[in-house]
Protein: CoA transferase
Amino acid sequence: MTGPLAGIKILEVGAVLAGPYATLMLADLGAEVTKIEPPAGDISRQVSDTYFASLNRGKRSIVLDLASDAGRHRLGELVAESHALLVNLKPSAIRKLGLTYDALRQYNESIVAVALTGFGLNGGDDPAFDYVIQALTGVAAMTGDPAGPPTLPGYTSVDNSTGLTAALGLVAQIYSGRGGQVDVSMRDVMLSQLNYHAAGYLDDGVVPARRPFGAHPFYVPAQLFPTAQGYLALFVTHDGFWRSLCAETGLTGWDTMAERAANRDPVIAAVSAVLATDTAANWETRLRPRGIPAAAVRTLGEALDATPEAVVQAGPYRQVRCSIGMDGYVPDYRRAPALGEHG
Structure:
């Protein structure tokens, strides 16, 4: 079967990660994505071939100097026959290059123009990168051991989250049947993802605190635990899970969520003592058949080795498959384009 977005033509003026990741998802779902690159190419081509390929498989590439009359003319021709254009640049550059809906509608009233920026189209040009947004939205302050410094996740959570949100906004506006501007900012995406933390602060005045081993603020026990060998993630969110855990480990008491929350420290101490008697791998093997959410902490290599079905071949590179599965459809995992290959 063809992909659900077959026949949809999308232009990308993107660099590095957030924008290209958004259109990668759309290309995996069957859209025809044409990557418009400057003469020097997307800067991610300079990082490594595998880096670029992981974000740009299945796309077309053309080279345009959008600051030139010829480049703007060709852009207009492409917009006239496309459904959407997604750009991730500074707001001033987006406007200067004529990549807003107001500038593009002369070529196509139905075009969807998606601007992916740090702080919104009207939010200024302050530099906005993944780590910077994690710092200024409170994410870094909430992450890490309470006795240590703020910590950043080991992957680009802001760029990936913003890319997914931009892809959703693009598809939603196309579905509406009308053209228009879609404005997605990295800051707003991360604030939105703080959902219950933000609501707790806004409505109840609760300031989120860092807890040892990433413990959940509401559920107990729900965190990482050191074991006889390795670390175990355990996530007991309701009393049924707790009863199952007690049946396997011999723990007793604290039968309700409220009791466990009110007695966090003794509960954690008791669970820690039990889990220290066996390895993380063995605990996973023992607990999961009982339906208890538990997993040994794995390295990236171990995680990929354990899920060979998630790895696909895209040209010369092995990559992780599209995360959206659909009945009757498997993406055509084609290689990433050479610079200007489809010009």
